[in-house]
Amino acid sequence: MNEANGQSQDYARSPTNVCNSAASPCRLHQHGRLPVIWITGAGGLIGNYLLHTAAQFCPGWRVRPLVRLDLDVADFPKVATLFRQEKPGVILHCAALRQSPDCQANPALAQKLNVDVTRHLCELARDIPFIFFSSDLVFDGRTGDYDETSPVNPLSVYAQTKVRRRIVRSLQSPTHCNPHFPERRNLTLRRSRFQ
């Protein structure tokens, strides 16, 4: 959903759609069970949209919504245990402390939820696709028409957590490569309000 104009956009039909790729591990695995997609932050705007459209765009997958009531993604031992049990084939990471006033009031919590959780999930997902959702707020809004090569200039604690070097370093780690997708180590998607 493009929040600037309220219009829904069909991002899932992208040619890089992980679920429908010819190289996708979408086939039955482990005792005939369907492969699992984890969607963290499934109760939020983007995560909920992905949850409700997954059946249409990822047939043959079991979608596992992860919401705060079911699993605290900041509880690293529980997340690691669940990861070993469910063996997801893809992680769509939408969870974050995204309310800027909350982040400003508690930078340590913002660091934990937006940086440390992301790093932990990325480490768990070292052998599977990991899709991370960022924010247009990493830019200062002065010029607009941003792309992935545009320099960032975060103006808030929330935006700073989205560009922390630890996230970037862990997402770009040479060990984070899936043999099913050798050309893709990860994917970072960013919502944009600037047109």
Describe the structure.
By secondary structure, this protein is of the alpha/beta class. It has a single domain (24-190), classed as 3-Layer(aba) Sandwich (Rossmann fold). Helices cover 32% and strands 12% of the residues. The chain contains six helices and five strands. A five-stranded parallel sheet has the order 2-1-3-4-5, sandwiched between helices. α2 (76-86) runs parallel beside α4 (107-124) and α4 packs parallel to α5. The two termini are 14 Å apart. The model is unreliable at 1-18, 20-29 and 175-185 (pLDDT under 50).
Order of helices and strands: EHEHEHHEHHE
Q: Tell me the CATH topology.
A: Rossmann fold
Largest beta sheet, briefly?
A: 5 strands, parallel
CATH class: Alpha Beta
Shape: globular
Rg calculated over all Cα atoms: 16 Å
Report the CATH superfamily. Answer: NAD(P)-binding Rossmann-like Domain
**Quaternary organisation of the protein chains:** single chain
Percentage of residues assigned to helices = 25-40%
Task: Please give the alpha-carbon distance between the first and last residues.
Answer: 14 Å
How many helices in DSSP terms? 6
Number of domains: 1
Number of strands: 5
Q: How confident overall, as mean pLDDT?
A: 76
Q: Which structural class do the helices and strands define? A: alpha/beta
